[in-house]
Specification:
29 strands; mainly beta; eight-stranded antiparallel β-sheet; five-stranded antiparallel β-sheet; single chain
């Protein structure tokens, strides 16, 4: 489309809009969300990357720069996998690097992350639970090959527990994450860092063999490397006292990693959220903290939910056999303004999703296809879309063509 045609399309589209964005009807206690319709498409290109994987690049009159991946899990050899930064929890790595290391055809950034690059929600790799679920939405591929979006716990965290030789129990608060006062947390070699040791004093650490036998009990010792295939129970304060009373050398401490939804069914999972589309309808999360809404702070929700932002999102079809991945660039006003949350839900619905959720967004929003970043990340970007750089992130959702990811479904 030439410049004159673009200008005409832009003027016609803007003229059709109300002077101010409509405010969505919201139930009591929920925010009024900007209900701005998607503007006219200026250009669109479609390309089949492989059977079962299609890339769509769309530019709208706002302007918005949109990249979409349509993934058909019914096609043999097309699969999805969770890719961790450097194959561990701690640390960050670019989406392109994660995809290259795993030989993935395409990828999109995944979960939010905090200090030390540690993911914040449910994370499962090839059936191995790496991070515990929280009261946030998560995308998962089940062992029967279906994709789902769900909250895998109806509480703040999961309902996991450790069972001592005498039958007494203690909750396991989180996994491979920060241990706070009176918490008992589980660490594995996937953590990628030493145990907290005396930096979390008063703390007791119980080192387990792969079969669950107690190999060592240490109180306020130095941080230690976590043995390959081993696990470490770390308790602070009252949780540490419980470990000292109940752990016995060369006796079994049994782990029951349960949650509201059965985690044994999950083959791959990446947390993030919030849910933005449910059963084909826009889903509006409360601005209030958990338990009224998903487990994010109200201030973060106001900025993320109600403003135009660069965004990444994942959606699934009603039968769980098709997955939609979308990035929309933003913070580059002459190139791409960003997208409202409800507009992203509308896009997901257009491309066949029944349920959808946000992934980490802002400068993290990245899509990679065949070794190339196809969107324009906002970090360091100029208003015209030039000069941006890819941000290192905690994990990515990887797409494979022609082979199953690590022998999975």
């Amino acid at each position: 489309m030439d410049a004159k045609a673009f200008l005409v399309a832009f003027i016609l589209t803007v003229a059709a809009l109300p002077a101010h964005p409509e405010q969505g009807e919201a139930p009591a206690g929920l925010p009024f969300y900007p209900d701005v319709p998607l503007m006219q498409t200026v250009s669109e290109e479609r390309r089949e990357i492989c059977p079962g994987l299609t890339h769509i690049h769309r530019v709208t009159a706002d302007p918005m720069n949109i990249n979409v991946l349509l993934v058909d899990l019914t096609v043999p050899g097309v699969s999805l996998r969770t890719g961790l930064s450097n194959d561990v929890v701690a640390g960050v790595e670019t989406v392109r690097s994660i995809a290259d290391r795993h030989g993935a055809t395409a990828a999109i950034n995944g979960d939010y992350w905090g200090p030390n690059g540690i993911e914040q929600g449910l994370t499962v790799v090839d059936g191995e639970i790496v991070m515990a679920p929280k009261a946030r939405s998560a995308f998962a591929v089940l062992k029967d090959g279906r994709a789902v979006i769900d909250r895998f716990t109806d509480q703040w965290t999961w309902q996991a527990r450790v069972i001592a030789p005498d039958g007494s129990e203690h909750p396991i608060t989180l996994m491979n994450s920060e241990v706070r006062d009176d918490w008992l947390c589980l660490y594995t070699s996937r953590f990628g860092l030493p145990t907290p040791g005396r930096t979390a004093s008063p703390v007791t650490e119980v080192f387990l063999t792969p079969s669950g036998l107690v190999a060592d009990i240490v109180t306020d010792g130095p941080p230690r490397r976590i043995p390959r295939d081993g696990r470490v129970l770390v308790g602070r304060g009252k949780a540490g006292e419980w470990l000292r009373r109940n752990a016995r050398l060369w006796q079994v401490m049994r782990l029951d990693l349960r949650s509201t939804r059965l985690l044994d069914d999950v083959w791959q999972a990446i947390g993030a959220g919030p849910l933005i589309l449910k059963d084909g309808e826009f889903h509006q999360d409360s601005l209030k903290p958990f338990p009224d809404g998903e487990e994010f702070t109200p201030d973060w929700k106001k900025e993320h939910y109600l403003l135009r932002q660069p965004r990444s999102a994942v959606g699934v079809s009603e039968d769980g056999r098709k997955v939609v991945l979308i990035t929309v660039d933003g913070r580059q006003p002459d190139f791409s303004l960003g997208i409202y949350q409800k507009q992203m839900a509308d896009l997901m619905l257009e491309f066949g999703a029944s349920d959808a959720m946000d992934l980490d967004s802002g400068g993290s929003a990245t899509m990679v296809i065949e070794g190339k970043v196809v969107n324009h990340p906002s970090d360091g970007a100029n208003p015209d879309g030039t000069g941006g750089r890819e941000r290192a992130v905690a994990n990515a959702l990887l797409v494979f063509c022609g082979r199953a990811a690590n022998g999975g479904p």
